[in-house]
Amino acid sequence: MGSQLSLDGKPFYFIGTNAYWLIDENIDRQKVDILMNGAKGLGLKVVRTWAFNKRLPYDNGHHGLAYDETQFQILDYIVQSARNHGIKLILALGNLWPAYIGPEEYVKIATGSAGGKTVADFYSDSATRALYASHISTITARVNSYSKIAYRDDSTIMMWDIMNEPRCPGCTPAQLSVHKGWLYAMASHTKSSAPRQLVSPASEGYFMHSNVQSNPGGGSSCEGEDFDTVSGASPVDVASAHIYWRQTEGVPGKPGTPWTHFTFERYMQWFSMYLGLHLGTGKPLVIEEFNVQVGVQTESQRNVLFQWLTDKLIASKREGGPLAGIMFWEGAVAGIQDFGYNIYMRRLQGFEEAATFTPAPVNLLTETHAPDKNQSSAHNTRFTPPVFDAMSGPLLDSDDSSQPWSGADEAKTGSDLESHVNHESSSHIHHDSSLQQHSRKLADVPIGSPPEELDPFRRFKERKACADSLSAGWNPIHPPQTVDVAAYMRRVAGKGVLDIIRGAAQALG
């Protein structure tokens, strides 16, 4: 497989955003359109969100799955709105974290109880595996109630994430072998269920064997996600990484105290080095999540990160490199809960006319028409396949993205817009192979927003024991000084983050 994405026979490089909250049942459809409209106005090409919900699926009472039609129609509308605005989607099929529906619910439905079990049982139990595979089949086969197109045939959906951040924290070698088998099986099943679309593991990019000293922390290799192994799986089309400052464990404190995080200066040097280590898989790389937390870092520091990373993406396009896309966490509109990561979308001036984005990619297949994380409002080697039967323009407002838009001017709803997507040939994005040491203990729980904290099901104690053991001989690598942070500070002075994003999107074309 090649290391680039292509659309209409041309290399495809993109800036995108995450907006997990689109799926929430309390979000009105107008906000969906505002987000898509604002993304289009910025030049964003891809939005990533969830293809699951509180009752998408739920227990049918007979160890099987049922799907709430109202919640399915929410997802239908997201897909249709993206289609109307010329936005591609990455849809995550499941989530390590418990918001909306976590893996413990699949274990409970399949086996009758999740009591005393962990995520390792989610990966290993045959009935639970079959249940999750059936969920993949159901979602990909869904016929959109608006467009009457099956999701698996809809060129709007660029890629499926088999599960957001599929960790196996503190797992034993035997459990990790099963985990690899699960990843292979679900990636294969997703690919066979939706062969016209790309597949990614949505893993965070940690190393377990090579490059361990380059990880963001001593306990990173305890998460059970080995980037080299996961990315090397044959059914995986696109490598992924989720990179945050909060993951870093840089300098040991006094005995008995947590590691301190990197300074921002050091974080930028580390990010540069770490990014380079993810570019050699022979597959396209998408940084599916990145940002810093305003309130912990400054807006100027955030802008430096965005300017530097968009520069790297532009250079990758110029050089035909494997860094194919970067997606910030997260795009928001007024009323969306903010942990310091929100970047607020603005309405594109004069967008009363129809969307005009007209992608017409390489012919893979002509498009056909077919007859509670804890809080629902917060985010937060080779494979050996197992024996497994999967089937048992200008903006209206000033560029202050840290403040939510008032919503006084509402965008046109998707139903008012016509899609001008060219369906003469399939609009699916795809690969184009012709293109180019201190002894101490780590903090008990990795720093993050509350819904991302490990709990017993997500193997908190096992992960902690592993991290404590590994951290005794671990020191962070000292990366070379390759990013002139002071020069970037001068460069972003007077700019807002929306200016940076929009300028980079224009440079990418």
Topology overview:
Layout lengths: L4 E3 L2 E2 L2 E5 L10 H14 L3 E5 L7 E2 L5 E2 L2 H17 L2 E5 L10 H9 L7 H6 L1 H16 L15 E5 L11 H21 L4 E3 L26 H5 L7 E6 L19 H14 L7 E7 L7 H21 L3 E6 L2 E2 L10 E2 L85 E2 L28 H12 L13 H8 L4 H12 L1
Parallel strand pairs: 3-4, 3-12, 4-7, 7-8, 8-9, 10-11, 11-12, 13-14
Antiparallel strand pairs: 1-2, 1-15, 5-6
Helix pairs in contact: 1-2, 3-5, 5-6, 9-11, 9-12
The separation of the N and C termini measures 25 Å
Task: Give the structural class.
Answer: alpha/beta
Q: Note the total helix count.
A: 12
Tally the beta strands: 15
Placed side by side, the strands forming the largest sheet appear as 9-8-7-4-3-12-11-10
Q: Give the low-confidence spans.
A: 348-400, 402-426, 432-451
**Gyration radius, rounded:** 22 Å
Overview of this protein structure:
The strands form four sheets. An eight-stranded parallel β-sheet has the order 9-8-7-4-3-12-11-10. It has 509 residues and is an alpha/beta fold. The longest helix is centred in the middle third of the chain and has 21 residues, at 173-193. α3 packs across α5, α9 (299-319) crosses α11 (485-492) and α9 (299-319) runs parallel beside α12. Helices cover 30% and strands 11% of the residues. Residues 348-400, 402-426 and 432-451 have low confidence and may be disordered. It has helices spanning 29-42, 69-85, 103-111, 119-124, 126-141, 173-193, 227-231, 264-277, 299-319, 460-471, 485-492, 497-508, and strands at 5-7, 10-11, 14-18, 46-50, 58-59, 65-66, 88-92, 157-161, 198-200, 239-244, 285-291, 323-328, 331-332, 343-344, 430-431. The protein contains twelve helices and 15 strands.
